Amino acid sequence: MLARGPDTNPLSRLPRGQLDRGGQPDPYLSIGSIAYGKPILDRALTYETTLANALKLAYLSFDSTRYSSADVGYPVDMLTYSGEEACWRHAQYDYDQLSEQRQWWNREITALAARMPHGPWVEGLLADQSKARLALVGEDSS
């Protein structure tokens, strides 16, 4: 969807109190709950980030929040503004449209953790690193 002109700013139609303008130096604007996804934006998004990568980071931020928060869900709305064309672009995506990205993120974040170098916690907290697995507290490990 393309919108042009002074009255076409989609931000002007937001209910009061839902606008979270990231203060400087945050290069993003988020509307609604972003608590779980904010660290992704804070760590990876800069003013030098390409718009294509910024949209990817916005999706990862949304998906991380959606995964951990019961009050966040699809559809996801994304918005860009072109200063050269003086126009807003808006798109809305539902759960099925983003299945490839969602599945990729689930695989890659798990693989990334597996490739991460062990920290000092491994030696200090695990007696036998090769056999250690997650278990419920009080669960019989035999």
Report on the architecture of this protein.
The protein is of the alpha+beta class and 142 residues long. The chain contains 4 helices and 5 strands, in the order E-E-E-H-H-E-E-H-H. 34% of the residues lie in helices and 16% in strands. Strand 2 and strand 3 form a beta hairpin.
Helix content: 25-40%
Q: Enumerate the spans where pLDDT stays under 50 for 5 or more consecutive residues.
A: 14-22
Radius of gyration: 20 Å
Q: How many helical stretches?
A: 4
How much strand?
Answer: 15-25%
Overall mean confidence score, pLDDT:
78
Overall structural class, as computed from helix and strand content, comes to alpha+beta
What are the main properties of this structure?
elongated; 142 residues; alpha+beta; 16% strand; two-stranded antiparallel sheet; three-stranded antiparallel β-sheet
